[in-house]
Specification:
With 130 residues, the protein is mainly beta. The chain contains no helices and 11 strands. Strands 2, 4, 5, 6, 9, 10 and 11 form a 7-stranded mixed sheet that branches. It has a 4-stranded antiparallel sheet with strand order 1-3-8-7, with no helix packed on it.
């Protein structure tokens, strides 16, 4: 059974850092685009970053560019989102998602498009506050 489990969220002060993890089980991440999305209270879900297994392309939303870094550990079948210089507006539930890349890359546009990702984790809360 395909499963994605996020972890690493928590409460952090502005300017601080967190590293989110997304552990995949029941399948290998090879052949999939992996995306990170977030949803703040009262707001729509937005794309944060994605990584393409097809061409290695990475994409970041303008709001996080230069502060967030997506990476993947193939041996652990896990994707990470390193978040630095966190701001209160980064407060949200963060989700990882995957989309099988048959026919080409699903990580080309900024920000990533949620409709291209079929499988989702349950999310992890990130709160940036002093």
């Amino acid at each position: 059974q395909l499963q994605l489990v996020e972890s690493g969220g928590g409460l952090v002060q502005p300017g601080g850092s967190l590293r989110l993890s997304c552990a995949a089980s029941g399948f290998t991440l090879n052949g999939y685009a992996i995306g990170w999305f977030r949803q703040a209270p009262g707001k729509e879900r937005e794309g944060v970053s994605c990584f393409s297994s097809t061409d290695g392309n990475t994409v970041y939303a303008d709001s996080v560019k230069g502060r967030f870094t997506i990476s993947r550990d193939n041996a652990k079948n896990t994707v990470y989102l390193q978040m630095n210089s966190l701001k209160p507006e980064d407060t949200a539930v963060y989700y990882c998602a995957v989309g099988f890349e048959f026919g080409g890359s699903r990580c080309q546009t900024a920000p990533p498009l949620a409709g291209l990702y079929a499988y989702w984790g349950r999310g992890t809360q990130v709160t940036v506050s002093s």
